[in-house]
Amino acid sequence: MTLALVPYPASLLVSDTPPFRLTPDVAISGDPAASAELSRLLLVRTGLSPALAETGPVELRIVTGGVSESYTLSVTSTGIRLSGSDAAGLFYGVQTLGQLLRRDDLGWSVPAVEIEDAPRFAYRGAMLDVARHFFPVSVVKGFIDRAAALKLNHLHLHLTDDQGWRLHLDARPRLTEMASDTVVGGGPGGFYTKADYRDLVAYAASRHVTVVPEIDVPGHTHAVALAYPEIAEAPVLSDHVLEVVESYGGAAPAAGEPYSGMAVGFSSLKIHDEATYDFLADVFGELAALTPGPYLHVGGDEALGTAPDDFAEFMARATALVADLGKIPLTWHEAGAAPGLDPATVGQYWGLTHPTDSSADAARSFARNGSSVILSPADAVYLDMKYDTDTPLGLTWANGPTSVERSYSWEPATLIAGIGDHDILGVEAPLWTETTSTAADLDIMAFPRITSAAEIAWSPAPGASTERTWTSFRQRIGALAPLWTLSGIGFFRSPEIDWITE
Ligand code: TNX
How close is the Cα of 432 to the center of ligand 1, in Å? Predict the structure, then answer.
């Protein structure tokens, strides 16, 4: 029997002894936060509301000393014992328990198992682009819930782009005053107040998720140009930009006008003007003070209007500013080509699963500097790609549509020659939002493909686990449909999967 666990645990023994039966008077004891989370999941899945008690057959405890984020779960007919090496590990064990719940003629039960589980990679992320479309705090919290339930532990927020600036900063108030009220397609935009942002960071922390804010520079800065035109270059209308305008519609980008189209690579900050670096110091400084997590993402992608030498000079200064603030700079992989980056800079690879020379070289340079990479191969983990040609939402630039099977069928350690397990900080699935504007849109693009990224980031490599196969995976996610439905997740009913109904 294959249990419907996603991501699949590092080690799992299923016994053929009787399961633990959940009765209406079942009591949960131990760690209060984990008990509350298990009660919530039990209520969602079974309708039972267990009592929280001093002692009982279901015990949830932190037992320090193990690998960080790990847990062990032991289920017999007489009880459930879950211990986490830390609060995150315990939380992940609870999520596993939630996936193990099943119903037969006698009611709800948990099968007798022994699980020892720990993550393969330390950084397991999802990205939400709140710049192309703006999503209110409540929707972002829902996205955090979905990610955390899959043992993802970082939320990268793409807070700024040509179409809008989404975080109020006291030092530069014009950014949200002048440049936050449009989105792709021209609808209303929005922005987070500092209180909203703090609320999101705290909520994420309660789900063991670290927020990674991104301020994308020096390109993707048309919104900055609306607020502070003195530090921005005029839009560069290359043939590529004009082609995108032609095929997706909307007006070409124009200085001083909000941009609501889908072209990229036309905007740049002024590289040789000290006022630009004063701006970066203000923005990164205030953002670093608001952000407890270790990373600050400075973008660096698709700066197509910026000459390579200028780009290198700019990225060196931008990453040094972040490092001086005590944060670890993160950039998209293009910045790896620039000499002089702060050596701690982590690169995020967004090339294809069969890399071109330049993207692979750029990614390798982070490892050469003694730092590491986060893998986001666009034709596997970009959640904004169509599933198939009929998918109403989404794009196809990353090698055509991305089926669920393709999202699952790649291996980090063999993706880029010269980048092995020890160079890989982790895996992240980005959800760009040019074509998505509602919480339902996010769900349908993310689910089920986000589960592929979660399993690749958490579970042992395919060679180290017999269940790390597409055949096993498709069966396991199919069996999670009832849990997702009860959790309010409107997933895409991909015909690649046999979805279980209850
Ligand atoms: C490429 S990936 C981009 C984004 C777009 C995305 C759409 C990356 C670093 N840049 O600006 O939103 O494609 O799929």
Answer: 7
